[in-house]
Amino acid sequence: MKNKTVYSLIVSIVNRGYSDEVMNAARNAGAKGGTIINAHSTTLGDEERFFGISIQPEKEIVLILADNENRPVIMREIVNHVSLDTEGAGITFSLPVSDVEGIKQFPVPEED
């Protein structure tokens, strides 16, 4: 099957200081590793509200490449362990990844 998406990029945006908790939860669910990026929110003030949630300006973005089979388990563990559903804690979502190159632990699947 051509162009079948096998991998996803899990993106978690959390308040500064919570990226270790995100990675610990993800590893417990089978993630091999991730990348942490320091970020700054572009809100108008020091604290903004979005959908009733307080948004703090200093953020950390955690990027985790996962196969689609493990993606829901990893995301669920992140949400449960880091309590992303509490006010101001953050958000996690995933995006499909069409190609992966250069990482031995993520073999490229053969086309059918």
Could you walk me through the main structural features you see in this protein, from its secondary elements to its overall organization?
The chain has 112 residues and is of the alpha+beta class. The chain has one domain (7-97): 2-Layer Sandwich (Alpha-Beta Plaits), CATH 3.30.70. 20% of the residues lie in helices and 35% in strands. The protein has 2 helices and 6 strands; from the N terminus they run βαββββαβ. The protein has helices at 19-28, 71-82; strands at residues 7-15, 35-40, 48-50, 53-55, 58-67, 90-97. A 4-stranded antiparallel sheet has the order 2-5-1-6, with helices on one face. A hairpin with a 2-residue loop joins strand 3 and strand 4. Helix 1 (19-28) crosses helix 2 (71-82). The longest helix is centred in the C-terminal third of the chain and has 12 residues, at 71-82. The mean pLDDT is 81.
Q: SS-based structural class?
A: alpha+beta
Q: Termini, distance in Å? A: 5 Å
Task: Give the strand line-up of the largest sheet.
Answer: 2-5-1-6
Q: Give the number of DSSP strands.
A: 6
How many domain units?
1
Contiguous low-pLDDT stretches (5 residues minimum) are none
Tell me, rounded to a whole number, the average pLDDT. 81
Number of helices: 2
Give me the CATH architecture, please. Answer: 2-Layer Sandwich
Shape: globular
What is the strand content? 25-35%
User: Biggest β-sheet, characterized?
Assistant: 4 strands, antiparallel
Q: What is the CATH first-level class name?
A: Alpha Beta
Instruction: Give the % helix.
Output: 10-25%
Using the coordinates shown, work out and report the CATH topology: Alpha-Beta Plaits
Order of helices and strands: EHEEEEHE
The whole-angstrom Rg is 15 Å
